[in-house]
Amino acid sequence: MDAKSKALFETAKKYIPGGVNSPVRAFAPVGRTPRFIASAHGDRITDVDGNEMIDYVCSFGPGILGHAHPAVVEKVQEACRHGFTYGAPTENEVILAQLIAEMIPSMEVSRLVSSGTEAVMSAIRTARGYTGRDKIVKFKGCYHGHSDGLLVKAGSAALTAFVPDSAGVPADSVKHTLLAVYNDRASVEELFQKDPDGIAAVIVEPVAANMGVVLPEDGFMEFLRRITRKYGTLLIFDEVITGFRLSCGGAQEYFQVTPDLTTLGKIVGGGMPIGAYGGKREIMEMVSPAGPVYQAGTLSGNPIATTAGIATLKLLKEDKDIYHRLSDKAEKIASSIKEAAGGRVCVNQIGSLLSVFFTSEKVTDDKGALSSDVLRYADYFGYLLDHGIYTAPSQFEAMFVSDAHTQEDIAFTCETIRNYFLKSPSASICYTE
Ligand SMILES: *Cc1c(COP(=O)(O)O)cnc(C)c1O
């Protein structure tokens, strides 16, 4: 059933670290062999052994329209005929920046880069340049890409001892990064009280989706808006996942809280590599060549990638009902899990993002997320995979619903999930391959 994937993985491990180009793809947390993908259309993804699966990974977010949407494919094919990259400005970049500003009005001025990591790294540099301050606050469990300063975890000592979360990151690179707890106002207040004039920016995922899906409690984003204003600190919403996913205007439209800077990735490229960061003109004019904050990119604003991005955003913008359809499908899945599993799991869902945590606790922060039983998650994942449903290969990644998911496939997914939990009525879930 997965002979070709297994063989490819063995070869891959000889030439690529761990056999993959991004760690989560290795399926290590779920103890399976990664499926090597041959193609994907609509809500289906097909591996090299010919297994067709209903895909809820959606490339970890970009695939909001499903795979190979015909209108996007057509535009991209046309664009390819005109050359791949020029190292010179194009009309597409202007169109995409305008479209971003229309859909997310706080992004008056934006700069395109090639990944979410780059967008966040550059937004933070801009915030530091603008405020003349060095420190930043991030939340435990939020992910903002793999730049040095953001790979940080709590040390064993007091609240102030933060250490690198990766080998190869100098302790000095994280000394300006302070950690707070998601949904915990006091943890943020304490950091500001210790250093009222030193914090350039607070960066947050307005819905955390990299520790599984964790929703902000009522008023938490408003609180961050107030406290950052009070201390002259910029508020950065990392909307690499939530941008164009929760609504046309992202989480900031959904919650009606306006940040100073926003970072985008994933959906904004329509499946091609793009990131973007932007905000008020006054702040963004700090960026080179308008201002003194240096940031550049050979492939930034790539014509093929901007074509895919523009086509995708236009479809989202013109379809008034799409966000309603998306959340309706995600709600169906969420309620079928709740019905079948009862209090054995915690299901967090908002819009087309959802997570099932194998814990009886209510998950509101990284500690709650970490209380889940990852072996049970692995078991659940394996059952779904063997029944043709491809979900996140880690407890700490979201399940993504796309507009291409058909009602039949949603119903089949709900049924399969129900069967899984019915098979394991007791606390000990024990599905094995
Ligand atoms: C995926 C992600 C990033 C990093 O984006 P890449 O394109 O993988 O570099 C940053 N922030 C958030 C919230 C993300 O989900």
Describe, in plain words, how this protein is organized in 3D:
With 433 residues, this protein is α/β, with parallel strands linked by helices. Helix content is 36%, strand content 15%. The protein is built from 13 helices and 16 strands. It has helices spanning 3-15, 70-80, 91-103, 116-131, 185-194, 220-230, 250-255, 281-284, 303-318, 322-341, 366-370, 374-386, 407-423, and strands at 37-41, 44-47, 52-55, 109-113, 135-139, 152-154, 162-164, 177-180, 199-204, 234-238, 261-264, 275-279, 346-350, 353-357, 389-390, 399-400. It has a 7-stranded mixed beta sheet with strand order 4-12-11-10-9-5-8, with helices on both faces. A 4-stranded mixed beta sheet has the order 1-2-3-15. Strands 13-14-16 form a 3-stranded antiparallel beta sheet, with helices on one face. A hairpin with a 7-residue loop joins strand 6 (152-154) and strand 7. The longest helix has 20 residues, at 322-341. The model has no long low-confidence stretch (mean pLDDT 95). Bound molecules: pyridoxal-5'-phosphate. Pyridoxal-5'-phosphate binds at residues 115-117, 120, 143-145, 205, 210, 238, 240-241, 265, 275.
Summarize the helices and strands and which ones pair or pack.
Blueprint: H1 3-15, E1 37-41, E2 44-47, E3 52-55, H2 70-80, H3 91-103, E4 109-113, H4 116-131, E5 135-139, E6 152-154, E7 162-164, E8 177-180, H5 185-194, E9 199-204, H6 220-230, E10 234-238, H7 250-255, E11 261-264, E12 275-279, H8 281-284, H9 303-318, H10 322-341, E13 346-350, E14 353-357, H11 366-370, H12 374-386, E15 389-390, E16 399-400, H13 407-423
Parallel strand pairs: 3-15, 5-8, 5-9, 9-10, 10-11
Antiparallel strand pairs: 1-2, 2-3, 4-12, 6-7, 11-12, 13-14, 14-16
Helix pairs in contact: 2-9, 3-9, 5-6, 10-13
Bound molecules: pyridoxal-5'-phosphate (PLP).
